[in-house]
Design brief:
Structural class: mainly beta
CATH class of the largest domain: Mainly Beta
Pfam family, one: MORN_2
Strand content: over 45%
InterPro entries: MORN_2
CATH topology of the largest domain: Histone H3 K4-specific methyltransferase SET7/9 N-terminal domain
Order of helices and strands: EEEEEEEEEEEEEEEEEEEEHH
Number of strands: 20
Distance between the termini: 21 Å
Protein name: Toxin-antitoxin system YwqK family antitoxin
Radius of gyration: 24 Å
């Protein structure tokens, strides 16, 4: 077994005859703080991997499941609170991941398969109420997307196909009455979009052709719906540096 050329001693940072990491490894920031500690068996991480920030605070704890390619992962805030938990498969996100806010409040949950979002991705309000549900397939938004009010009633829903809106979009008022209805074709607004007042009276209609307003100016309500589509779904995920398995 040969010592890694960057190692400071003969105890840590060893490689085997094939040049693969083997045994106990550690790396340091320039300020002397440990960046990570890990253990390897012929290039494969085993046991517990710990990552730290430059102030010495633990960012991540990765527990490798013996004899498998799976590892359970926990990420921490700079205050030491858990901010995310999940599973790695071959160093890629897999299965269900959960995200937490201050005080351990669940703020989001999502499904992964081999490094790609696959299935439901849920977001919760500060009160713990489901605020949004996205559906994903092979890393792209696909299926019914739904936003909710605090009372649990739908706020808006539409379908996505391979990352593009498709078919009918409906937005609702808190009382359950329709706010707008319209169609998407090939990811663009098409045909007549209808808007109503909170008491159910027709407010206006706007006609689109391949996403462009026909004979008019896009109204404020349209811009609100654009914002819903663009800003839907926000989970504050761990920093990229912390997400590296080792």
């Amino acid at each position: 077994m040969a010592a890694h050329p960057q190692a400071a001693d003969t105890v840590f940072n060893q490689v085997d005859a094939k040049g693969q990491r083997h045994g106990f490894w550690r790396r340091f920031y320039r300020n002397g703080q440990a960046a990570y500690t890990a253990q390897f068996e012929h290039g494969k991480p085993v046991g517990i991997t710990l990552r730290y920030d430059e102030q010495g605070r633990k960012e991540a704890e990765i527990r490798h499941r013996k004899g498998t390619d799976y590892a359970t992962v926990t990420f921490y805030s700079d205050k030491g609170e858990v901010i995310a938990k999940g599973l790695y498969y071959k160093q890629q996100k897999d299965s269900v991941w959960s995200y937490y806010g201050a005080g351990g409040v669940l703020v989001g949950k999502e499904s992964w398969r081999r490094g790609k979002r696959n299935g439901a991705r849920d977001f919760y309000s500060d009160a713990g109420v489901l605020a949004e549900r996205q559906m994903w397939k092979d890393g792209k938004l696909h299926g019914r997307q739904t936003l909710y009010f605090e009372n649990g009633n739908p706020r808006a829903f539409w379908d996505m196909v391979a990352g593009e809106p498709s078919g009918q979009m409906v937005a609702l008022y808190p009382n359950g009455l329709a706010r707008l209805k319209g169609q998407y074709v090939n990811g663009k607004r098409e045909g007549k979009w209808t808007f109503w007042t909170p008491d159910g009276k027709l407010e206006s209609t706007t006609t689109y052709e391949k996403g462009v307003v026909v004979g008019g100016v896009e109204r404020q309500g349209d811009s609100i719906m654009n914002q819903l589509l663009q800003n839907a779904g926000r989970i504050a995920e761990p920093a990229a540096n912390a997400e590296r398995p080792f």
